């Protein structure tokens, strides 16, 4: 079954959310002027985007670390394909921070200058699917799926926002030499958040002292972010895309939650489609879809 156009539209092989963007706008991004100092977070949905947005904001902005600045993550690290129209974002002093779910072939042409920094965060696709299923009920912009099995069929049939998980990650990883890119996984961030923050800092050429680093790590933990109105997408002002009372954007924040949702048959069906194709990726990202990682 095709996704309803009320929620998604397909443009250049990629599914976009209907109510927030147009094909013309996506096309216009090709000429978007990039600065060498820009930093882009790139993800497939539900892979740790807001987490990484928050980490970047904490690294770059003392006022975010010490709580004196009350700027929400969506304003601090705006979405390239959603709210960048606001010219304030474009004229910001460097370094500008952006987030995007775009595939490698739809990003601004000049991002391939190989100086601008790109951080790609990937997550075990089984956990992505479970998180995405819950998010589909929570977001008013997406079609609520009556049960996980129906969502899973859509996910495997490539008919969800941002398209097929495998296409997204394969596209970015096979074109990695075209970009100045750091690959991270959600799982390594969970396992060693401090190590991941240090890795990000090294890539960005940012040096934080021990105290600053401690604060970044503390404020980027799941529990802290869940109660941080700048980072939990629950502000009344901005989060008008979430249905009240249907759950939280920061839902569980764990690795391996798919085991609580997927049946053995669903997991096997998933493996049949992904296992072979993921061989190269698994060595790059250190994944086994059956693992807790
Ligand atoms: P779950 O639904 O599994 O809880 P995105 O920002 O790309 O949409 O990803 C959302 C997922 O990242 C959600 O996963 C959310 O809970 C998780 N997440 C957000 N911040 C996190 C943090 N600080 N630590 C761990 N997981 C986090």
Task: Describe the SSE topology.
Elements: E1 8-11, E2 14-17, H1 23-28, E3 39-43, H2 49-60, H3 62-65, H4 73-76, H5 87-91, E4 97-100, E5 117-122, H6 125-138, H7 148-156, H8 165-174, E6 180-185, H9 186-191, H10 193-204, H11 210-219, H12 222-226, H13 264-274, H14 279-285
Bound molecules: adenosine-3'-5'-diphosphate.
Structural key phrases:
binds adenosine-3'-5'-diphosphate, two-stranded antiparallel ribbon, alpha/beta, 10% strand, 293 residues
Summary of the model, kept short:
The protein has 293 residues and is of the alpha/beta class. Helix content is 39%, strand content 10%. It has a single domain, classed as Rossmann fold (3-Layer(aba) Sandwich).
Give structural notes.
This protein has a single domain, classed as Rossmann fold (3-Layer(aba) Sandwich). The strands form two sheets. The protein has a four-stranded parallel sheet with strand order 4-3-5-6, with helices on both faces. Strands 1-2 form a two-stranded antiparallel sheet. Strand 1 and strand 2 form a beta hairpin. The radius of gyration is 18 Å and the shape is globular. The mean pLDDT is 92. The chain has 293 residues and is α/β, with parallel strands linked by helices. It starts with 7 loop residues before the first strand and ends in an 8-residue tail after the last helix. Helix 10 packs across helix 11. It is 39% helix and 10% strand. The protein contains 14 helices and six strands.
């Amino acid at each position: 079954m095709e996704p309803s156009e009320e929620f998604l539209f397909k443009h250049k092989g990629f599914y976009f959310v209907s109510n927030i963007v147009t094909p013309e706008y996506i096309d216009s991004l090709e000429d978007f002027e990039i600065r060498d100092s820009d930093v882009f977070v790139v993800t497939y949905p539900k892979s740790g985007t807001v987490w990484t947005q928050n980490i970047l904001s904490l690294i770059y902005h003392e006022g975010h670390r010490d709580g004196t600045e009350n700027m929400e993550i969506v304003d601090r690290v705006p979405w390239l394909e959603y709210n960048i129209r606001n010219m304030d974002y474009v004229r910001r002093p460097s370094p500008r921070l952006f987030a995007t779910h775009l595939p490698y072939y739809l990003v601004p042409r000049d991002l391939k200058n190989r100086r601008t920094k790109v951080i790609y965060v990937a997550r075990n696709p089984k956990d992505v699917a479970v998180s995405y299923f819950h998010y589909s009920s929570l977001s008013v912009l997406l079609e609520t799926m009556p049960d996980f099995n129906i969502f899973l069929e859509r996910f495997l049939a490539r008919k969800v926002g941002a398209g097929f998980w495998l296409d997204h990650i394969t596209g970015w990883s096979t074109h990695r030499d075209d970009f100045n890119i750091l690959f991270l996984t959600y799982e390594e961030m969970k396992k060693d958040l401090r190590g991941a923050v240090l890795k990000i800092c090294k890539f960005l050429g940012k040096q934080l002292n021990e105290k600053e680093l401690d604060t970044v790590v503390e404020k980027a933990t799941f529990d802290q972010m869940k109660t941080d109105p700048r980072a939990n997408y629950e502000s009344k002002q901005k989060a008008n895309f979430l249905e009240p009372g249907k759950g939280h954007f920061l839902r569980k924040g764990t690795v391996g939650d798919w085991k609580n949702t997927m049946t053995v048959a669903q997991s096997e069906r998933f493996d049949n489609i992904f296992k072979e194709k993921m061989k190269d990726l698994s060595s790059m990202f250190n994944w086994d879809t059956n693992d807790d990682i």
